[in-house]
Amino acid sequence: MTVYNFAAGPSQMFKEVLEQAANEMLDYNGTGMGVVEMSHRSKPFQAIQDEAEALFRELLNIPENYSVLFMTGGGSTQFDAVPLNLLVKGKADYLDTGNFANKAMKAAMRYGDIRCVASSKADVYTYIPKVTRADFDPDADYVHITSNNTIFGTRFKEFPDTPTPLVCDMSSEILSRRIDVSKFGVIYAGAQKNISGAGVTVVIIRNDLIGNAKPICPIMLNYKTYADNGSMYNTPPCYSIYLAMLTLRHLKKLGGVDAINVINERKAKKLYDFIDNTNFYTNKVNKEDRSIMNVPFVCATPELDAKFVKEAGENGLVSIKGHRLVGGMRASIYNAMPEEGVDALIDFMKKFELQNS
Is the entire prediction scored with pTM above 0.90? Predict the structure, then answer.
């Protein structure tokens, strides 16, 4: 039975990447050892990290005045790292559009004057609040957003125009569509959705924002520590960086970010069109704010939802249970989810509806 993993993360990876990693587990590139046991100070690993950075720069068209840092701790560690590094004047604006956006805002409140500019929490985060440049404080150090809200299935289709550096948690959609990096001060992303296995967090930061950390900022959260040491102040998450390199190579082979975006849009449209044209399933998200990475939906009752999850798993559609804050189901259809997986899900949904209507 073919298994399709709809988990929100760690998520399904490209089969070709996993096959290559398996083939190189005992001997990477003729070194006689696998990357997992290789010294991070060795020339073979330095070449891996250099290629990973170069591919990030190429695929996202990252300007030269930005650094690419490989950090640990997942996206959640950046909830503290961002204010510790960027709160120079002590003020920042946050948009509260989901669970992780809310967590980031609450973490920052320990370090300065943090203002919630807009929130959709009262409506269970079913939409992205509309804001204009005038809504933001021009004296703030930065504006923080979460571009794609994994649990609730919303995303910023267009990014806000801000008078101060825009900081973005892009963990659950990075590399899924074309972005203009120059519009951001900082982009950070945990790897376990579109980049690699869990372990590495990529931080893309404009160089003028490095070197302003608060005195209380731990050495291992200070962006300057990583920038000054080529992300090798200590042992980096070597194997996750290696998997990232393989994933980026494969993405380039497929045609890059623009090519994968076409596939992602097509996958999401198929699923949303099916949901919208049935009375059995419901997606509660404002249509113009729907994520193309995470698609939550529910049946008429929690009992039917539980039955759906159980029977879907028995048919090779695994990890489709929705987050406890939302319930129901959630199909995470990141870059590596093949279109056949979405087709298989829709076929199952049709059969389940016929059997339970």
Answer: yes
